[in-house]
Specification:
The protein contains one helix and 17 strands. It is mainly β. The two termini are 33 Å apart.
Amino acid sequence: TGTQRGVVLVFDLFGEVRQKLGKSAGEGSGSVTSIDLSVSGETIVAGYTSGIVVWWDVIKGSVLKSISDSHHSPITIVRFVNETSIISVDASGLVYKLNFSKAVMWANYSVDSECLLDGTAGQILSMHILPPLSSLKLSPSAIEKHCCRNLSLIALSSERSSFAVAVEPSVNVLHRWARVSPGTEVPAAESSFLPCLAWGWALISGGGVNQTPVLARAWGSSLQL
């Protein structure tokens, strides 16, 4: 849980506080606006109103890396792509992929930033990351042979458009499509609804025996796959 005082509280399954992250390193960062826990449960990423993104070691309660030069607006979304890569989004519509790496001879982590969207699309209202192939109940050999084994996808929506973006093995905007224009029979209140995105894996016609990434987008009463 993130707090207005810039502290991240980590609870166990019994509701007991196990860590308080941000007692010193989080000072001056502002309120916590978004957090995400890695799949392993060993690290947490937190975004703050100041635009700072902090990567935390949950076990030690220490900062692994603090990034202050990518965003200058409040962070609205932070999500893990994998254990050492995250997506960060701020209120101005800037979207970054942050890749952490650790040199063999050094104890500190470095970060490589890649800009996915430069803010011209407007504020990002929704984002979803494709669950990893390992989330499917496939054998190790089936995963190794799968055509999407190295692929990581995200989807984002602004007020006007949605984007499907590949972030691994390389960054590439795969598709952009505009918001569906409401028909005359749709109430005026429909325009105030926010988009909702969700990735999943499914068997589709022409896809063979391999499950394929499928994106669902809902916007008001419109649902698209």
